[in-house]
Amino acid sequence: MWILTAVLVGCQSTNATTNGDQQPAATVQTLQQWQAGQTVSMSDIKFYGGVEKCFAAEPIPDGVWQRMQGKTYKKNPYIGRDDLRHIRVLHWDYDKKIHIGEMVVNKLIADVVVRIFRQLYDAKYPIQRMVLPDVYDADDETQMRANNTSSFCYRVVAGSTKLSKHARGLAIDVNTLYNPYYKDRKDGTRFIQPATAAKYCDRTGVFPYKIDRNDLCFRLFTEAGFEWGGDWQSCKDFQHFELKGE
């Protein structure tokens, strides 16, 4: 876990009170340690220092870097620790609760990505889960089945030997189960990731977390210079936004 050193605004300890209400130590600790995947309340956020403090891009902390080794990060000549940033955000889901999220991205897009996720948070845009792929041992199929939103993972493009833009932290996948990748093969079969998402390849359907050209997530990423995999012709990757020209 990444232990933050910041002092809580307006309180001297996790047992401090405001307006006579005592804040439980466990909830403050969840934010101090930035436990991605956990749920927090507006009261928790207030004691932590406010919403603005919960959105940041910073160098990769030691604890996060250790978790990445041999999973999302493998020794390579193309990208290193200094090229990456750890971002912290909050996000809403359909449960109408606030969840803690984290992501590793390339430093070239870190500030832009933080800004986009802040705009999504302000709009209460639903994102089910945002934890590092290392939680799933960097297995892309597994994390996509969990509908996880993520970025950096040193790997190749599905079905090829070419390095993915995820390998440089220049691509973001959002709500992955409901916005799958697929490619129609010459033999008439269809390759789908995650394999459990076949019914979501039909984009005429109505279902939660669906990204299309009318979606806020689509608009924010494309306005910021990203291209959407849902616009590709040779395959479709509805979850995928990648920085153009890099």
Question: Tags for this entry?
Answer:
single chain, globular, 246 residues, disordered N terminus
Number of E strands: 12
Query: Which structural category do the helix and sheet elements fall into?
Result: alpha+beta
Low-confidence stretches: 1-21
Radius of gyration: 19 Å
Strand content: 15-25%
Give the termini separation: 31 Å
**Average residue-wise pLDDT:** 89
Largest beta sheet, briefly? 4 strands, antiparallel
Helix content: 10-25%
Strand order of the largest sheet: 3-6-5-4
Order of helices and strands: EEHEHEHEEHHEEEHEEE
Oligomer class? single chain
- Overall 3D form: globular
Number of helices: 6
Task: Give a verbal description of the structure.
Helices cover 20% and strands 20% of the residues. It is built from six helices and twelve strands. The chain has a four-stranded antiparallel β-sheet, with helices on both faces. The chain has a three-stranded antiparallel β-sheet with strand order 7-12-10, with helices on one face. Helix 1 packs across helix 2 (42-48) and helix 4 (110-122) packs antiparallel against helix 6 (216-223). The model is unreliable at 1-21 (pLDDT under 50).
Question: Can you summarize this structure?
Answer:
The protein has 246 residues and is α+β, with helices and mostly antiparallel strands. The chain has helices at residues 25-32, 42-48, 62-68, 110-122, 140-145, 216-223, and strands spanning 17-18, 21-22, 39-40, 56-59, 84-92, 98-106, 171-173, 181-184, 190-193, 226-228, 236-237, 240-243.
